[in-house]
Structures are given as structure tokens and as C-alpha cells.
Amino acid sequence: MSVQTRPDLGSLPAYVAGRTVPGAIKLASNECPGGPLPSVRAAIAEAAADVHRYPDMGVTALADRLARKFGFPVERIAVGCGSVALCQQLTQALCVPGDEVVFAWRSFEAYPIVTQIAGATSVKVPLDSSHAHDLDAMLAAITPRTKLIFVCNPNNPTGTVSRREDLVRFLDQVPPHVVVALDEAYREFVADPDVPDGMEFARTRDNVVVLRTFSKAYGLAGLRVGYLVGPESLTEMVRRVYIPFSVNSLAQIAAMASLDAEDEMRERCAEIITERQRVADELTAAGYEVPETQANFVWLPLGEKALEFAEHSLANKVVVRAFAGDGVRITISTRAENDAFLQAACSFTG
Ligand SMILES: *Cc1c(COP(=O)(O)O)cnc(C)c1O
């Protein structure tokens, strides 16, 4: 008899990473341009001398630091191997087969994957006509089997946001036993004061979890470290399903050094925010529909032309991220790289 894998994994979608093409500009993975901050790079180099040791299994120094930064007891913090690992730990901690996980679609492509790995069922709620979360429809999608709702704010890949008033109304109506995970991977790029900091809700509501990452604004995508703040009993279970030592020692050191360099990070984000507006304005002037974005990328809802647009960009040495039949997501980068993209976009005749 041959090896028998789980039959339900045959339909598991593969995570599609942004492509890296030698010689082309990569605007496909929402990475930060400019490399790690100099002080962070130095801390990583110094920590390299200790990699023969196992990392701190509890990631205690970083968890303590985050607890102090946000004013939560450390028991409420879990650090993971990127926040995508925490998304998976969260579904594993909450769901048994047959349970339902609600999220918007299109949203972060890891949600259906981690849901299925946990044996749970994805309930995809279409975005509204402005490419934003339809929170009322998400409420209506809750059933007795619903355990978890992901709300990606700003949403990947559309960049759209849910604002305070709408989120409060939503959270007020979610049953208290259903967990709402606010995925704030792009929080540092939010410039609109009406977009609430999820920590506000984590402080006052015991079914809210906030997910953050060092991969985007902090520029540590290659090191894999993110964190979660949630109610203590849930956070404890999230830590229990952690793959031992998966947050490596360089990642722990680099994350702490990054927190020391927060002012520099904020300056970098401010540049991205300025460029984001310029790129959106130029695309609009060129005749594109550009949904409002508060993240470090823009979304072009090109529908059936998405793949063709991505091929045209690539022919112009710019890699973007296409979602077939739906749209194209373009990461905001340096002025020169954005200009290269704009030139490609303006010469697209599809
Ligand atoms: C990039 C991203 C993450 C997590 O990234 P990690 O590198 O795993 O920390 C989580 N959620 C969304 C929506 C993202 O775009």
C-alpha cells in the first residue's frame, strides 16, 4: 500500500509568492525598499556569533518589550515566525473540523490556506463595490459554527480600510464567543486618523486579537517575525501550538533593534505615504480606477486584464502581483522605482 496523505489536502491552495526576476524591479511582495536599517543590520551581524545556541523558546525579551510598548500584560502577547504563522496558530487554537472561519474576499491569501489546514471551512464574503470589507455582510455570514473572523485592515491586496465607527458597530454585534482577528500588517502606513489602532479594541474587548508583523514597515520580511495581542486564555493556546524555536535568534534580536529605531522607520513610512499619493494620482490621471489605499501598495481592479497588465509590466522590467481575473497589486517603493512602474502603466494599451 502506498503512502496515504490527508485526502482533504488535495484541494489546499498553494501560497503564491511575489516573483523575483533578475534584473527587474520587484514591486510584488509589499516589501520595504532600502534594506534593513543600519543599526538593525549591525545588531544582526553581532548576533550571528551566537547562532550555535538555540533561540529563547519563549521569545521572552521581545514579548516583554512589546508588552511594555503597548501596555499589556506579557501573557497577552504571542510572538510567531511571521504573522502568517500566527494566523495558522490562531485557527489551530480555535477550530475543529466543521468550524467556520469568515473573511473578506479578496483578502490575504493565507486565510483560506490556514483555515483548511486546521480542517475548518472558509466562508468568503465578497468585498463591497469600493473594494472594502462589507462588514454587514460579514455579520450576516456568522453561523453557530463560526469561530473566527479575519478583518484585514488595511486590506491586502486592495489597500482599503474599515473605519472606527463601522468597526465599533461591527464588533458590537459579533457574538462574544466569536474571535475577531484584526490583521494590521500595514498599520504603520495608515495616515487616516479615522482608521482605529486595533490595540484600542484589544484593550477593551475580550474577543479581539490584533496581528502585527516586522516584515513590512520594519523591513524584516526575510527574518520572519510577527506578534499577536489577544485575550490571555486564547493567547496561551496560540503559544501552545507554536512550532518550538521557530522564531529564530537573529529575528528576535533584529525585532528588538527595530523597535529601538522606530523614528527612522516612521520617516521611511512617511516617504512611502507621500509616494503612495503621487502614484495613485498619476494612475488616476492616466485613467485607471484606483481604490483609496492606506497601505504600502495600490490596487488596480483590472478584472480580466490583470494578467495582461502584469505581463506588460514585466516586459518593462517591473514585477507586480496579479490576481487572475481580479486585479493587480503594486508595492510602493522609491521614487525611481515607482516612476519605472508608472511609465509601464501609462504605456499599457490593453
Ligand atoms: C504580509 C502580511 C502578513 C504577514 O507577514 P509575515 O511576513 O508572515 O509576518 C500578514 N497579513 C497580511 C495581510 C500581510 O499582507
Task: Describe the model.
With 350 residues, the chain is of the alpha/beta class. It has two domains: 108 residues, Aspartate Aminotransferase, domain 1, CATH 3.90.1150; 222 residues, Type I PLP-dependent aspartate aminotransferase-like (Major domain) (Aspartate Aminotransferase, domain 2), CATH 3.40.640.10. It has twelve helices and twelve strands. Strands 2-8-7-6-5-3-4 form a seven-stranded mixed beta sheet, with helices on both faces. A three-stranded antiparallel beta sheet has the order 9-12-11, with helices on one face. Strands 1-10 form a two-stranded parallel sheet. α3 packs parallel to α4 and α10 runs parallel beside α12. The mean pLDDT is 97. The structure holds pyridoxal-5'-phosphate. It catalyses: an aromatic L-alpha-amino acid + 2-oxoglutarate = an aromatic oxo-acid + L-glutamate. Its cofactor is pyridoxal 5'-phosphate. Keywords: Aminotransferase, Antibiotic biosynthesis, Pyridoxal phosphate, Transferase. It is an enzyme of class 2 (transferase). Its EC number is 2.6.1.57.
TL;DR?
The chain is of the alpha/beta class. The chain has helices at 38-47, 60-70, 83-94, 110-117, 135-140, 164-173, 198-204, 232-240, 249-260, 262-285, 306-315, 335-346; strands at 25-26, 77-80, 100-105, 121-126, 146-152, 179-183, 208-213, 226-229, 297-300, 318-319, 321-323, 327-331.
